[in-house]
Amino acid sequence: MREFAALFESLDTTNSTRLKIDAMVEYFRTAKAVDAAWAVYVLVGRRVKQSVGPALLRAWLREEAQLPPWLVEETYASIGDLAETIALLVAPEGASAMRATAPQISLADWFHQRILPLTGLPSEEQRRRIVSWWHELPYRECFLVTKLLTGSLRVGVSRALVTRALAELFGHSRALVERALIGAWQPSADFWIALAQNESSTLASHPYPFYLASPIEAVESLGARGEWLAEWKWDGIRGQIVRRGAECTLWSRGEEIITDRFPEIIAAASAIESGTVLDGEILAWGENGVLPFAELQKRIGRRTLSSRILKDIPVRFVAYDLLEWQGEDWRPRSLQERRTQLQKLLSPQTVIVLSPAIDAPSWDSLAAERDTARSRGVEGLMLKNWQSVYGTGRQRGGWWKWKIDPFVFDGVLLYAAPGHGRRSNLYTDYTFGVWAGEILVPVAKAYSGLTDEEIRRLDKWIRAHTREKFGMVRSVESAHVFELAFEGIARSPRHKSGIALRFPRIKQWRSDKRPQEADTLANLQSMLPTQR
C-alpha cells in the first residue's frame, strides 16, 4: 500500500501528463503482478462493492476524533471530503512518522485480506477493524484506505492516460490495452500476465472500445458534402452485440453486460454468423417509430421483464457499424467498406436494423433535415467520413455530432452543496426551481457552466445569504436567476415537480432578471414529448 500511496501522491501533485505516465510506468514495472492489476483496477475507476456506508464512517469518526461532535461536523462541512476529514482528525500529518513503522501490507492484500472480508460482518466488528486501521496508518494511507472503502477515490488520471502508460510499459498498441480493460475483468496476477503477454484468449467475450464523436457547429468546414455519411443521432443506449462461438452478448457503453434486459435482440443476434461484432443503439420502438428515452428507462428499471412489458415497450437495435466480421477485426477498414458489408448482413432482419443514411445532397438541405430532429425523437445528426476507420475513444476528425439546440429555461437558485476534489471548499452543486403558482418547485440540479470567478462570487453570496442548513446542503434566499440548458424532459412521479430533465447544465447567470421573471412549471410541462 505504501508504494501505491506514493504513486497517488505523484499523480495528485502534478499537472504534467508526461510525469504522470512516467510515475505509472515506474510503479507498474516494479510492482508485483497482483498489486499492479489492482492498481489498474482502481486507477481506471473500477469499484468493489461497498461494505460500509458513509453514514457509519461519520458516526465512528465522531466517536474516535476526541472532539465535540459539532466540531467534527463543521470540519467535515469545511473540508467537503469524508476520507480527508478522517485522515486529518484521526491520522494527522504529525503522527505519520510514528506510524511509518506499522506492518506493510500490499495493495492486493488490503483488498483480499481486509476490505473485501468486511462484507457480511456485524457492524461492531466492521467498526473495530476499520477504526484500528485509522489509528495504525500514516495520513496518506489512512486517506486512501477510507477512499477505497467508500468507493469514491478520484485520481488525477483518466482511463486514456492509464492506457498510454500500460501501452508504453508492454510495447502494445493502445487499442489492444483499451480492449483488455473493457468488461467484467477481475484484478489478478493471471490478468496482469495475460495483458503483458498479449494473450488474445482473455478477450474472447470482450467488445471493442467505443469510438466517440466530437461536437461540431460549422459543418461547411468539413468540405464536400458527398464525403460524409449523415445519420440520425439516436437517443437510446449505445451498445455492442458480440457474437462469437456459441455465445451472444450485449454490452453497454458503460461496459455492463445487459444481455438479459433485451431477449428479443439476443434472439435476433443469435441468427447472425459467428465472429460478428456490431456497434449501434438500443431504442424503444413503437408502431410509428422511435419512442422517447423515458419509455426505454421504464424497461431498464424492471428487475423482471413480464410479457406485458415486452409487448408494451418493444425494442430495436439500430446498427451503424461493423467492427468484426467472420472473426476478423474490420475497424481498420474504411466506413464505406464496413457499411456495405453491414447492409448485406442485416437485409433480412427486423429487430436488428441498419441505421438509415439521410439523403440530402447539400449542407443546406442537411441543415433542413436537422431542424426536424426533435419531432422525430432524435438528438440531431451524426456525420462520418466515408474513408474513416473505426477509432478508439474521442479521436477527432472521422466522426462528428451535429446536435440540435438544447431546451432552455430560467430557474431560481434554491439550494447549494459543496463540490468535490479541488472544489470541495466551494459551493458548486446547485439546485434550481421554477414557479408553480406562488411557490418555487425544484426541477434540476447542475454543477457545470460557470467560470471560476463566478463560482467564487456565488460561493461568497451563498455563505452570506443562507436560510437553513441540512447537513452539507444550504437553502438560500430566492434572489438569483440562471438560464439552464437540458437535452430532454420526461414525466417522473418520483420528483416533486412531476418531471425529470436530462443532462441539465448552467448556460449563463441571468443577473439582468428578477426571480419573479423565472419560468413556470407549466412552461416546462409544455415541452413534454407527445407519445409517438
- How many domains, in number, for the residues? 3
> How confident overall, as mean pLDDT?
88
Cα distance spanning the termini:
55 Å
Which residue ranges are poorly predicted, with pLDDT under 50 across at least 5 consecutive positions? none
Q: Shape from CA axes?
A: globular
**Count of discrete alpha- or pi-helical segments spanning 4 or more residues:** 21
Number of DSSP E strands: 20
Can you give the helix content as a percent range?
Answer: 25-40%
Q: Superfamily at the CATH H level of the largest domain?
A: DNA ligase/mRNA capping enzyme
Beta-strand percent range: 15-25%
Report the biggest beta sheet as strand number plus sense, adding barrel if it closes. 7 strands, mixed
What CATH architecture of the largest domain do you see?
2-Layer Sandwich
What oligomeric state is this? single chain
Q: In terms of structural class, how would the helical and strand content be classed?
A: alpha+beta
Radius of gyration: 26 Å
Question: Tell me, what is the CATH class of the largest domain?
Answer: Alpha Beta
CATH topology of the largest domain: D-amino Acid Aminotransferase, Chain A, domain 1
